[in-house]
Amino acid sequence: MARGLFDAALRAASGRAEVLVAFIELTNQASWRVHVDGFGMTPLGEFTLGDRAYGVVASPVRPTTPPTA
User: Fold this and answer.
1) For a disulfide at 44, which of 18, 56, 67, 69, Cβ 3.0-4.6 Å?
2) Could you give the CA distance from residue 47 to residue 42 in angstroms, rounded to a whole number?
3) Residue burial 47-63, b: 16+ Cβ < 10 Å; e: rest
4) Distance (Å, whole) CA 54 – CA 48
């Protein structure tokens, strides 16, 4: 199910964005494993908002049609 949602997000972003970004609470290791280990998203950094720490991950959006020359 998670793979289907991720693929749908990539399709929806295709032609509209260059990257797909997610913010994951660092205590949520299951979500981290799905996004980074499962989907291959790249960790970009961390930030804290209030008393919660988050990781930022991103994946390039693949175009749905090949670019024309």
Assistant:
1) 56
2) 15
3) eeeeeeebbebebebee
4) 6
**Average pLDDT value over all residues in the chain:** 90
Supply the DSSP string of 5-58, one letter for each residue: HHHHHHHHHTTT-SEEEEEEETT-HHHHIIIIIIT-PEEEEEEEETTEEEEEEE
Measured at the CA of 61, the angle between CA 6 and CA 27, to 5 degrees, comes to 50
pTM: 0.81
Which amino acid is located at 13 in the chain?
Answer: A
Q: What is the Cα–Cα distance from 30 to 32, expressed in whole angstroms?
A: 5
Whole-number pLDDT of residue 67 = 57
CB 58 within 8 A of CB 18: no
